[in-house]
Amino acid sequence: MTHHDHDLDPFAETEDQQALRALARDVADRALAP
After folding, report:
1. Less CB within 10 Å around the terminal CB: N or C of the chain?
2. pTM (two decimals)
């Protein structure tokens, strides 16, 4: 845990959000693939 408060940092989740979005897109592509 870092000294920063994750809950109070509006940008704390940005990288996680991008990773989740990329993962979701990857899964969606596989689900839509024949």
Report:
1. C
2. 0.51
